[in-house]
Amino acid sequence: MAKFEISRRKFLTGASLGASGIMLSGCDAFDSQLSIGSGLRSFLENANGLTYRAQRLLAGRDTLAPEFTEADIRQPQRPNGVTAPDDDIYKGLLANNFADWRLEVTGLVEKPLSLSREQLQNMPSRTQITRHDCVEGWSCIAKWTGTPLSLVLDQAVVKPQARYVMFHCLDTIDRSLSGDIKYYGTIDLIDARHPQTILAYGLNGKPLPVENGAPLRVRVERQLGYKMPKYLYKIELVDGFATVGGGRGGYWEDNGYDWYGGI
Amino acid sequence: MESVARSQSAGPGASASNDTTLIYRQSRWTRLTHWLWAISLFFMLLSGLQIFNARPQLYIGKQSGFDYNNTILAIGAENTNAGLRGYTEIFGHRFDTTGVLGWSGPAGQETSRAFPSWATIPSYYDLGTARVIHFFFAWILTTTLIVWLVASTVNGHLRRDLAPRLDDLKRLPQDIIDHAKLKFHHTREYNTLQKMAYGGVLFVLLPLMIITGLAMSPSMNSVLPFLNDLLGGRQTARTIHFTVMVLLVAFFVVHILMILAAGPINELRSIITGWYRTDPPAQDDKPVERSA
């Protein structure tokens, strides 16, 4: 019996040794293996593809994100990222209350479009009270009004080889050696044609404010906030995004976020 | 399927009390899944703390209060007369946690971060990479749980070792006393506290972790819209996710302490090879007549 008993002193010594081992183990040992493009990271990123396929299988094309009531709107929509673009083109458009702003629809379409704000607002609209989930972890509920993206795509007539919608934005999010980087992002055509995917020009019953993306931003309600670009001016239908930016499909994706933001 | 090996631990002439018995206690499924969980939970914890650092606040409800207050926990740094200090605020009570939470790092190079760099992967701030690691091991963890559940149903581990019995309840008070005295019985069966701890982790904490994790996914919200209603909203789900993490860490600490106290070599052998040395039969285990 004595064989299995240990003294309190031994126990405490062992316990503190174990605890300090745990403290020391964290955790810069993995840092060098985790940069974009490294073998280990690329292997781990396979799980993102699995998540994307699993969630597409479960959610299908048309399951709706939860919608809320007016009573759930308890605060202004929290702005994040760029909230006041410092770009001359943007400031010029803003000074004229976006009268000269156009939404270009280009790329793999039969009929390229150039739509004014009035033209967009004259199309059928959808209003939805939804929860905005930021990748950082916070949520905010607001009422969004806009033109369903599917209507715009139908008007432009998407070519069969198109696979993604690329959003081009007016705001400079970053500066690199090769110049200013404007925000951009991509979604697939399933999300682009989702009934809740709208090009929003209204927020909580008022025109979309600058900090939330005026004159036009995207709402992709089954994904996280970084998939919903603000300050939109061009929609380009593409069959891939390998040659744009860092080749990962968006500004944040090029900086390490998953292309699929459904989780 | 019980394998028992008896060995004389000492040479000829050793007394019967030196008899030791090796039994095959942990099946290969139990051992394999145990270590897969250990690895997954290690990486999920450290990447999870990195993810938390992106928004080191916890809220109750559907959304995060910016114009109203539904924050129950906040970790941050603040300017004081004594320079920058880290603080942790729980239910309105503020504690100075400089050096660990809120403001930490090598002397002179402290930075404002909720959890310190030794507790996160990567050690520097990198939300995107932490998410890659977190979701990779989320798949491993969940798959392992399902494999374990199936294997343990088939091989009888659940029924034989984990299912609670009436006897467990009767033994509970003595069990608590024995644990408090660090007095352990090495038998084939789990004791009551072990059953509660392992059952609690496998049937309550891990499933709750997976459910609250899914409840934070906007895409899963479209598949299972009732989930957040049941949990009290997405931000409450996030708070539960964090709380379960704290409970799992507490389980881990107690688990390690118990192994150290109960005999780390024997305990480790059983979870690596499956073989476990049980207590020798007691000398005085003959029924004793007691007079009333």
Automatic annotation (TrEMBL), chain A:
Residue limits of the Oxidoreductase molybdopterin-binding domain? 98-239
Q: Which InterPro entries match?
A: OxRdtase_Mopterin-bd_dom, OxRdtase_Mopterin-bd_sf, TAT_signal
A Pfam family cross-referenced in the UniProt record is: Oxidored_molyb
- Quote the CDD domains the UniProt record gives: bact_SO_family_Moco
Source organism superkingdom: Bacteria
The record's annotation in PANTHER family points to: BLL0505 PROTEIN (PTHR43032:SF2), PROTEIN-METHIONINE-SULFOXIDE REDUCTASE (PTHR43032)
Name of this protein = DMSO/TMAO reductase YedYZ molybdopterin-dependent catalytic subunit
From TrEMBL, chain B:
Which is an annotated GO molecular function term of this record? heme binding
Give the UniProt keywords, A-Z.
Cell membrane, Membrane, Transmembrane, Transmembrane helix
* Gene Ontology CC annotations of this record: plasma membrane
Q: What are the BP-aspect GO terms?
A: respiratory electron transport chain
According to its UniProt record, where is this protein located? Cell membrane
Cytochrome b561 bacterial/Ni-hydrogenase domain residues: 181-274
Q: Does the record bear Membrane in its keywords? A: yes
Membrane-spanning segments:
35-52, 132-151, 196-220, 240-262
Q: Which InterPro entries match?
A: Cyt_b561_bac/Ni-Hgenase, Di-haem_cyt_TM, Hydrogenase_cytochrome
* Coiled-coil stretches: none
Specify the protein's topology with respect to the membrane: Multi-pass membrane protein
Q: What is a single Pfam family found in this protein's UniProt entry?
A: Ni_hydr_CYTB
Q: Does the keyword field hold Nucleotide-binding?
A: no
Q: What is this protein called?
A: Thiosulfate reductase cytochrome b subunit
Q: State the organism of origin.
A: Rhizobium loti
